[in-house]
Amino acid sequence: MITLIRQELYKLFMRKKTFVVLIGLILLTGFITYGFKSNAENMKKYDTPEFQIENIESNIIYLETEKNNIPQDIESDEVKTSEYLEDLDREINQLESEKALIMSTIGEDIDWRDTLDQKIKQQEKMILEDGANVNASELAQMNLQLDELQYLRDNQIEPQEYHDFNGFIFINQLISTLGQVFLFIGIAVFAADMVSGECTPPTLKLLLAQPVSRGKVILSKFIAIVIASVSLIILVEILAFIFVGMIYGFGDSSYPSIVGTAYQFDTSIFLENGGHPLTMVPNSGEIIPVWQYTIKLFLIQGLFIVTITSFVFMISTLVKSSMVSMGTSVVSLIAATIIFQFSALQRLGKYFFTSYSSLDGLITGNIAMYYNNPSMTGSLGIIVNVGWIILCYLVAHTYFIKKDFLI
């Protein structure tokens, strides 16, 4: 059995297609890296005091102009006109205050610990003052945000800005990005001819003539394509993580990440469509260090890659043409992703693995918010993926050992 797997792996890695897919993945990773870094640089620019002051001044000029353009529906009403002008003056004064505050910080070296302490006090004050006026879900989110700030303070970790860029931020963004479309297309191109490709030319005839059971033949092919798919994709990601980390730093591996958030319908609120909004289940989220979050993300991605590979492998077993296998796989995967976005089919979508392509959503629990379905959780996503792996392999195995191959 091991010999068969080794032979299949050798055939896989000697194909030109494998190198084409590998080069394509490397180039795509490079473009994504450049895009992430460029976006971080732009966000950093927008976050500078100079840019913020310029933006505030533009808003003040706009509001001053609006004072001379009183809407026609209130122009004849002195009371409404006065209220309108007072609102504009109030906004202008607020902007002037923000501008003065920002200008006062220019040139000052503010300790991030002091800023963090201030945020903690503001969050505690908000919970104390507004806690009684919000629902349980909003209060739970406020407490979770406070826990995150306390975690940073207790562990002496400097808070990250939204424009920061390091190895851990990059790899988590990369995995989430690749989990949408590339994995479908890339794996379909890579694995579509695993079985069907041996029908023309008829190398499958020689393989079946060997003193090895068909069950072992199909199992060895399955194990080989799974190993190749997972190793190629994750290896490129790990190398990219190391590359980015060495240049821009890896960041603090203990940085907090919130995972395991659960949601439920708030039956006390009715929406226009007759449904209920989703609200966070109190005390459902937990904080883990980013290194644990990243490992979980890699494991979830590995499972998702195996599921896609199993589906493509099944199609490759059922048809004889590599082109038909590839086309059917790509169309089926993308169509399923689109179809189950419709509200009428979302309840069925939770049983199809393409609905769980948001890998970060599986870990954080936010996938329930994406589909407005509290039953879509990380645990269900794992069960659905494992179920599809088993189903796809059993279909491929049964068909392969019973089918008469006329080659």
Helix content: 55-70%
Question: Which range does the strand content fall in?
Answer: under 5%
Number of helices: 17
Number of strands: 4
Query: Major sheet: size, sense and barrel closure?
Result: 2 strands, antiparallel
Strand order of the largest sheet: 1-4
Structural class: mainly alpha
What spatial form do the alpha-carbon principal axes imply?
elongated
Rg over CA atoms:
28 Å
Low-pLDDT residue intervals, each spanning 5 or more residues: none
Number of domains as seen in the coordinates: 3
Kindly report how far apart the N and C termini lie. Answer: 25 Å
Mean pLDDT: 80
The helix-strand sequence is HHHHHHHHHHHEEEEHHHHHH
Your description of this structure?
One of its GO terms (cellular component) is plasma membrane. The protein is mainly alpha-helical and 407 residues long. It has three domains: 2-46 and 164-402, no CATH class; 48-109; 110-160. The chain has 17 helices and four strands. Strands 1-4 form a two-stranded antiparallel ribbon. The chain is elongated and about 90 Å long. The model has no long low-confidence stretch (mean pLDDT 80).
